[in-house]
Amino acid sequence: MADSKTDKAARPPQAKAAHPPRERKGWLTRLRPGVRSDIKKGDTPENLWVKDPESGEMLYRPDLEAALWVTPSGHHMRIGAAARLRFTFDDGQFERIASPNVVEDPLNFPDERPYKERLAAARKATGEQDSMAAGFGRVAGQPVVVIVQDFSFMGGSLGMGAGETFVKAAQEAVRREVPLVIFTASGGARMQEGTLSLMQMARTTLAVNEVKAAGLPYVVVLTDPTTGGVLASYAMLGDIHLAEPKATIGFSGRRVIEQTIRETLPPGFQTSEFLVERGVVDRVVTRSELPAVLGSILRTLMMGRSRLSAA
Q1: How many CB atoms lie within 10 A of CB 192?
Q2: Is the pLDDT of residue 276 over 90?
Q3: What ranges in 239-289 are assigned the alpha helix state H?
Q4: How far apart are CA 153 and CA 156, in angstroms?
Q5: Are strands 142-149 and 218-227 parallel, antiparallel or unpaired?
Q6: 176, 143 in Cβ contact below 8 A?
Q7: Which position among 201, 267, 274, 300 has the lowest Cβ density within 10 Å, counted as fewest Cβ atoms?
Q8: Please, how many CA atoms are within 13 Å of residue 108, restricted to the half-sphere of its CB?
Q9: Model confidence at 111, in pLDDT bands (50, 70, 90)?
Q10: Residue among 293, 272, 163 at smallest CA distance from 222
Q11: pLDDT in tens, 200-254
């Protein structure tokens, strides 16, 4: 009789039955079987969902676009120049005012990344020539020239290109005898252009004076954020100052001010609501209401001009 241990050792081990790999199913597949076959790769954009910076809620991008990029919590997200112009003008119809060409990198600014490359990257990302764009059209029926600063273009920084666009838009307003409106959004002057950037503060101020000398309204809409040299020049020269809710508006940052004066600043400091209470801003207006409010203000101001002309 064979030894049971020897007999077991002599027999080859039986191969385990192979099992097909189990298909991993996501929550969407569990809700509706076969949904994966309905969705082809590349059909859905990567940025289909956008996070609300204030509440942290994930929002469906088409719904957010329909709400003019204002979240359910009331947070007004930053938008580009093209979207701002489209939202502001009646039926999204307007005539673009071409931005003048300027010398690029006039100082040959030394940096980790060449200034010309930064400009090229910003133009590719935004589709704009510089941080300012302008257009002519009607807002609530009132003809007007509108300038928009795009914060996504190098922080909306003020440089030669932006300054030239502002001056040309102001000249167009005078030539067409229509009001001038600007939506500001900037971190200040553009350091890559040094003193040439700071000179735009004076040039834009002179352009505003030309608009006012022609008896035309100049209205400023402060959006998040408006700071630095922009606030110290044309952003504070309007006949009327409007602002979007909870926009940051100030010359320097809160931390810098607190370290300088060695005092704790009050809650909500440098927000549009805080500045309305202190008379710096005339009114806080939601994005959806802005065209109607602007149209009403501009018609009233232009009415006064018509009376002066008749007299």
Answers
A1: 23
A2: yes
A3: 254-261, 272-277
A4: 5
A5: unpaired
A6: yes
A7: 267
A8: 0
A9: confident
A10: 272
A11: 999 999 999 999 999 999 999 999 999 999 999 999 999 999 999 999 999 998 8
- Three-state DSSP class for 271? strand
Instruction: Specify the residue for token string 């809650």.
Output: 267
Beta bridge partners of 163: none
Record the pTM: 0.84
- Which of 101, 122, 275 has the alpha carbon at shortest distance from 190? 122
Q: What is the pLDDT of residues 196-215, one digit of tens each?
A: 999 999 999 999 999 999 99
Cis peptide bond upstream of 21, omega within 30:
no
Q: Yes or no: say if 229 and 196 are a contact pair by the CB < 8 Å rule.
A: no
Place of tokens 């991993």: 24
Which residues in 107-186 belong to E strands, given as ranges? 132-139, 142-149, 180-186
- Residue 151's pLDDT band (cuts 50, 70, 90): very high
Give the whole-angstrom CA distance, residue 134 versus residue 173: 11
Domains of the chain, CATH where assigned:
47-77 (no CATH), 79-310 (3.90.226.10)
**Rounded percentage of the chain residues whose pLDDT exceeds 90:** 79
Residue that the structure tokens 């385990």 belong to: 16
- Determine the 3-state secondary structure of 25 from DSSP: coil
Dist. CA 182–CA 85, nearest whole Å: 11
For every residue of 186-245, DSSP letters joined together read: E-SB-GGGHHHHHHHHHHHHHHHHHHHHTT--EEEEEEEEEEHHHHTTGGG--SEEEE-T
pLDDT greater than 70 at residue 3: no
